[in-house]
Amino acid sequence: RGKRHATSAVFCKTMGCHRKASSARWRSSVIFGLSLALILAVAFSSAQAETYPSKPVRIIVPYGPGGIADVTMRLVAQDLSKHFGQQFFIENRPGAGGVVGMQAVRETAADGYTLVMVGGGLTIARALFKSLPYNIETDFIPISTTASYGLVITTRAGSPYKTIKDVIASAKAHPGTLNFGTINAGSAQNLSAELFRTMAGLDVTVVPYKTTPDLTTAVLRGDVDVAFEYFVGFQSSITSGQMRVLATTARDRASNLPDVPTVIESGLPGYEVTSWNGLAVKAGTPVDIVTQLN
User: Fold this and answer.
1) How many CA atoms within 13 Å lie on the side-chain side of 242?
2) Distance between CA 140 and CA 101 in Å, rounded?
3) C-beta atoms surrounding 264 within 10 Å
4) Is the Cα torsion angle 201, 276, 123, 95 positive or negative in sign?
5) 51 with 86: CB under 8 angstroms?
6) What is the mean pLDDT of the chain?
7) What does the alpha-carbon distance between residue 147 and residue 31 come to, in Å, rounded to a whole number?
8) What are 100-147's pLDDT values in tens digits?
9) Do the beta carbons of residue 247 and residue 260 sit within 8 Å?
10) Quick one: pLDDT at residue 98?
């Protein structure tokens, strides 16, 4: 019995030592494997960055063509194409206040070959929708802002409205008869019209259109009495004299429209709307590529 106990003790000690040695070797193997994987990942990322971009790069604009987002990104795409010697092209994916386009980017590879225009509308969407198919804070990496701007409030040239005070007076004298036009429900343009309606205490209908060209047609045809949009979207209609600008929405007058008063100056204290846009990529995109784009 004593010999069996002694033998068992020796056996257990031996096995214990064997298990410790095996465990130590296993840990060493894991550490080595993880280190090698990290080195290879860094090397691969650096190699990607050195050859980036080796093919055309897509910029998804989550709004329709012709608006401020589209025009701004096309200018940015031109300069990026010149800088990198590779084509950067625009793909419009409008819908649900920008949600459709953002979801499309989230489903692509994180390789820097799909960029997305981001802006104030995305933070608005987070407040408007109970849930979104993406997390704006964790699913994307910001590259840079590209612009900030106010809006213009316009009417057709033949309209009886010459000032913001005219619009407010008419809306109060004839409640429920005026239409305010914007693009997508939930966009900065749409909410700027809703804010105006609320602050002025007006009974008007805010009508959202899918794209800026659709809204332009509605204004010129008289389907809407007043429209809220960025200057770039209405520029040709304004410069040709087809539209009249009643006011701008930023705190200060626009440098390109120095004779046009702000909404605050026009008699609605506290009303101020500005927006912004920029570029982002899917989370996981190599840092070196993000840095190059920035």
Assistant:
1) 12
2) 13
3) 18
4) positive
5) no
6) 87
7) 46
8) 999 999 999 999 999 999 988 777 878 877 888 999 889 999 999 998
9) yes
10) 83
Q: C-alpha 161: how far from its chain's center?
A: 34
Judge whether 196 and 189 are in contact, CB under 8 Å. Answer: no
State both tokens at 226: 């007043």
Contact between 159 and 244 (Cβ < 8 Å): yes
Determine the pLDDT at residue 257. Answer: 96
Q: In the structure encoding, which two tokens stand for residue 278, read together?
A: 């920029």
Q: How far is CA 121 from CA 6, 164, 184, in A?
A: 77, 25, 10
Strands 114-119 and 57-61: parallel
Q: Encode pLDDT of 228-273 as tens digits.
A: 999 988 999 999 999 999 999 999 999 999 999 999 999 999 999 9
Tokens 């494997």 locate to: 33
Residue 184 in tokens:
């997508």
Q: How far is CA 130 from the centre of its chain?
A: 18
| Radius of gyration of the chain measured on its C-alpha atoms | 29
pLDDT given at position 32: 55
Query: Exposed (0-12), middle (13-18) or buried (19+): which is 115, by Cβ within 10 Å?
Result: buried
pLDDT at 211: 87
Place of tokens 């026009």: 266
Instruction: State both tokens at 14.
Output: 């031996």
Residue 112 zone, left/alpha/beta (φ > 0; ψ -120 to 50; rest): left
Q: Hey, what are 254's tokens? A: 């626009």
Please tell me the pTM assigned to this model: 0.67
Residue 112 has, within 13 A of its CA and on its CB side, a CA count of: 21
